[in-house]
Amino acid sequence: MNIDDTExxxxxxxxxxxxxEHICPDCGCSCEGYDKRERTWQHMDFFDMExxxxxxxxxxxxxxxxxxxxxxxxxxxxxxxxxxLFEAKGVELMKEMPVNATGRYLGVTDxxxxxxxxxxxxxxxxxxxxxxxxxxxxxxxxxxxxHRYVSIFxxxxxxxxFVTNGNDASSVxxxxxxxxxxxxxxxxxxxxxxxxxxxxxxxIKNEFPGAVVTYDRYHVIQHMSLAVDRARRxxxxxxxxxxxxxxxxxxxxxxxxxxxxxxNLSPSQKERVDWILESHKEIxxxxxxxxxxxxTWDYDSGYGAANHLLDWLITAERTGISALRDIIKVVDxxxxxxxxxxxxxxxxxxxxxxxxxxQAVKRRARGYRDWRNLRTxxxxxxxxxx
Length: 386
Hints:
Radius of gyration: 30 Å
Oligomer: single chain
Shape: elongated
Number of strands: 12
Largest sheet: 5 strands, mixed
Structural class: alpha/beta
């Protein structure tokens, strides 16, 4: 072992004593080594000094299968410049901090760490078993600026099982290929929960025709919240154009109070909401319809919920309020998919929580140059296999 005080580096040289018998990893035949080649691996720091292992590794030729290869060493993987312990430490750090920061801390380039991480994740994902998968969630999340997305598929245990580029029908087709390559069957999938994107729906109809699709509560209420805000902005414009600037100013800052659920309002916020509903009839009607729509998922059966939702549609259409036009169309066109919740009990709130974690990882790294790097981090943080 050599220690260089000027460079704060430790070099450890490993040598074998006597003749060593080597075993072919393919056929198990005994081989003799020859033509040793010097190799170096970076190891974990030794008393805060950079540490490297050196060893002359022999080649071997199997007399049975004829394969020529370098002898494997127990402290590192094939074709790696790092020891197993160094790679393990790097992967653990990359779970919690950006790859660039990990590289600076360990004293290696981020490109080398990405190769280690990709190899680690790919190896773990090979062992993924989807034979029991009978339901999944799918949603999109932004990967770069310019409306560039990746589609994320999650199982019922909230583990990420597949990430692919895009958010159209082809992404669902690629997931089916991935599913069948990991012992799964498309015919076994009974329930799917997704948003209202046309691409997902088209892909599901083609690739999983026997599955029941559920449009989750989160996205339905999101459309209803947009209707409430449209009604507020319309009333604000009417007040402003009518010269009632004081009332318009009081209404302008109340957007998020109106969008909050009634049970989550503080006493002062509830007073403000009551004033708005009493002073502005159209907002009051739309707000009341929002709370009524939320009651759909409180029924014990799909039959009662269907009757309630039908009554809600009739009432909303009779109001003639333009702010409700879009949500009426959404509920009418996806009536069955909304009520399928009573069969599947699936809610895409799972995906919204997952997306927030992924976006936090992306922001911490200041974005990724390649969507494949984001995919690797998704598997690392959310697959349950890494």
